[in-house]
Recover the amino acids of this structure.
């Protein structure tokens, strides 16, 4: 009888300790191309909380990823050095202190040229992530998948920072190149017509789910490319852009969204763009069923890693 070698992708998904894709948990940045970073913060959610458990659940389901992306013909864990950096220290009752911690930690990685994929957490965390990336790359093109524009001015009265406001704040802080800001998958009942009008007035190119279905996947990708061109682009991905039938584990579900297949096709279509950073937010495991949302989320992160790996390959 031989003893199985319990390392890397030779390990079965139910073995061992969870890091993203079984990559080494380290903060040594020597030779590192990509760091997966968790931000277990959901203090800014307006409805159902629980996204603080997102990073852990996504890591656990990532053990199902076997390593080779057939659609993009790349092995993202082999083509580049990926680490699991662990989680940012968050301060649940203090969103400003949490934002500072996220900014400082992620800046230290981005500054070194490491590409960061952040696992949320609520969408409020996009603001300090955009700050950190903008310091390095200047004003960013932003591809924003979401059911919601997240461009409210305030929430709960005077609250400037919440998961409903990060993109208005980011535009005010001049972190986003609004000529290259595109929102995809917007839908659902809102507090009024003004929600969408405000987002568009701020400069967002809004592709609602109705627009998306009319345009088709090729049309959406063409619109993204014509907006973003070769600018440094940050991809912010709210899991609620996907239909709750495929991603029920989220805080503010909206019916009538993308299927998981459509989303994978859209992400693969971003191949070759100058992608400099990613987040995946609003996965809320307490509302998930059979881990389907966190399985999907781990596969989306695998697509992010694959896009970075494809870009790294010589052409
Ligand atoms: Mn959002
Ligand atoms: Mn949303």
């Amino acid at each position: 009888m031989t003893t199985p070698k319990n390392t890397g992708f030779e390990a079965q998904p139910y073995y061992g300790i969870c890091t993203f894709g079984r990559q080494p948990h380290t903060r040594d940045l020597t030779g590192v191309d990509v760091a997966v970073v968790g931000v277990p913060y959901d203090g800014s959610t307006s409805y159902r909380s629980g996204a603080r458990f997102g990073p852990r659940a996504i890591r656990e389901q990532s053990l199902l990823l076997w390593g080779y992306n057939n659609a993009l013909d790349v092995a993202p864990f082999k083509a580049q050095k990926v680490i699991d950096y662990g989680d940012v220290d968050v301060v649940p009752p203090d969103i400003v202190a949490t934002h500072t911690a996220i900014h400082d930690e992620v800046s230290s990685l981005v500054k070194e040229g490491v590409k960061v994929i952040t696992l949320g957490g609520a969408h409020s965390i996009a603001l300090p992530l955009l700050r950190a990336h903008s310091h390095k790359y200047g004003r960013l093109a932003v591809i924003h998948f979401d059911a919601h524009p997240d461009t409210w001015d305030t929430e709960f009265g005077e609250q400037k920072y919440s998961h409903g406001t990060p993109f208005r704040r980011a535009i005010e802080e001049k972190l986003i190149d609004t000529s290259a800001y595109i929102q995809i998958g917007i839908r659902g009942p809102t507090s009024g017509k003004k929600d969408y009008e405000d987002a568009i007035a701020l400069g967002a190119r809004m592709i609602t789910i109705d627009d998306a279905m009319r345009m088709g996947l090729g049309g959406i990708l063409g619109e993204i490319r014509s907006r973003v061109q070769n600018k440094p682009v940050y991809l912010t991905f709210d899991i609620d852009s996907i239909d709750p039938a495929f991603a029920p584990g989220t805080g503010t579900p909206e019916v009538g969204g993308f299927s998981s297949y459509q989303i994978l096709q859209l992400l693969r279509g971003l191949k070759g763009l100058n992608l400099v950073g990613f987040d995946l937010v609003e996965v809320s495991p307490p509302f998930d069923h059979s881990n389907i949302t966190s399985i999907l989320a781990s596969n989306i992160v695998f697509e992010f890693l694959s896009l970075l790996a494809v870009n790294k390959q010589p052409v």
Remarks:
- The mean pLDDT is 95.
- The chain has nine helices and eight strands.
- Residues 292-312 form the longest helix (21 residues).
- Residues 123, 146, 148, 150, 163, 238 surround manganese (II) ion (ligand 1) (CB under 6 Å).
